[in-house]
Amino acid sequence: MDKKVFGYARVSTKKQAEDRQIEALLEYGIEERNIIIDKESGRDMERNGYQSLKNALLRRGDTLVIKELDRLSRNKADIKAELESLKSMGVSVRILNIPTTLAEFSEDQSWIMDMVNNILIEVLGSIAEDERRRIHQRQREGIDCALDKGIVFGRPQIQFPENWQCVMEQVKNKEITSVTAMELLNLKKTTYYKLRKMSA
Is 199 a catalytic residue? Predict the structure, then answer.
């Protein structure tokens, strides 16, 4: 059976472009039809493209090429588990921005590659995980700062019309119907009943 080389590219959202990764994979010599792309978060491994690649396409002796380690995942534990899983499948992994993973070793020198890769997994996995933690921290700091300035997130809170109490008294005394009250208050039905529920 012929050994195949597959490329994998991932961007976190549908708005991000994966062109840079694909260009690098094509330059490495991977056929475009053998490049699998996911537009999903890297917080776990449950991505349609990647799972299809791993479970249906990759075979023993094949090679998987990614541009950067964090394209596989942003979680160090997931990265380690996935690389170990691919190794047990007999799949070689090449990471374009880590030159040592691109070196060719004979079978009796494979331990050198394993040792180097294990070190890189630890270091780069920690960096990817730390970067994700910093992003979340910056987001949290930004939210806290906005809240301190009085910025309100989410949908604007429904405001009671100025004549609310007066109209509600008329409804309570059965002087007018709810339909008339909505007209007087210039409110839609859903908003009217939401406000009634809030004031109950």
Answer: no
Q: Across the strands, what pairs with 6?
A: 64
- The C-alpha torsion from 197 through 198 and 199 to 200, rounded to 10°, is 40
The answer to whether 55 and 104 have CB atoms below 8 angstroms apart is: no
Nearest CA to 125 out of 81, 70, 46, 44 is that of 70
| pTM as predicted | 0.56
- What number does CATH give the domain 5-135? 3.40.50.1390
In angstroms, the CA 190 to CA 182 distance is 10
Which secondary structure element, helix H or strand E, spans residue 36, and what is its range? Answer: strand 35-39
User: Which is the catalytic residue, given 12, 52, 85, 178?
Assistant: 12
Quick one: average pLDDT of 80-88?
A: 84
Residue for token pair 């921290």: 137
For 21-37, how does the pLDDT look when each residue is reduced to its tens digit (9 = 90+)?
999 999 999 999 999 99
Average pLDDT over the chain reads: 81
Token duo for residue 182:
């909505």
pLDDT tens-digit readout, 114-165: 676 667 667 666 666 677 777 778 888 777 777 777 666 666 667 888 899 9
